[in-house]
Amino acid sequence: MGNWGLKLDRTELLSFIESRNQVQKINGSPVDTDPFSRNEYSHVSAVLYSRANWMCRPEKPGEEFVLAHNRNAKCRLPRGWLPVGEEYWLEDSKLLTTKHS
After folding, report:
1. Structural domain of residue 79, as residue ranges?
2. Chain-centre distance for alpha carbon 30
3. By the 8 A CB rule, do 17 and 1 touch?
4. Residue 69 included in any domain
């Protein structure tokens, strides 16, 4: 993800995130930001991330999880497969999300 930006015209104010093909880790190594748009990652159904912090545990187990679906996966996980945390997926070019309680 890139920098946050604003576009203002006479009728509306739009916010957006600049697109980047790569970001750099602290050590300078590049990390691709678009693996789900490439066929070589079609074997990955989704990525599960945890915002867990060893100093601050979540009130409900699993609420710290973030699941990002790969729409190009050969074997897709159904939405709601992990019924906790947040879930993200693309429909057309729109990023959609739901938060499970």
Report:
1. 30-100
2. 18
3. yes
4. yes
- Could you report the per-residue pLDDT of 29-64, keeping only the tens digit for each? 998 888 888 899 999 999 999 888 777 777 888 889
Q: Would you state the structure tokens that stand for residue 88, as one six-digit string?
A: 């993200």
Kindly state whether residue 21 falls inside one of the protein's structural domains.
no
**Domain membership flag for residue 23:** no
* Per-residue pLDDT at 17 exceeds 70: no
pLDDT above 80 for 5: no
The total of structural domains in the chain comes to: 1
DSSP string of 6-57? EEE-SS-EEEEE---SEEE-TTS-EEES-GGGSGGGTT--EEEEE--BTTB-
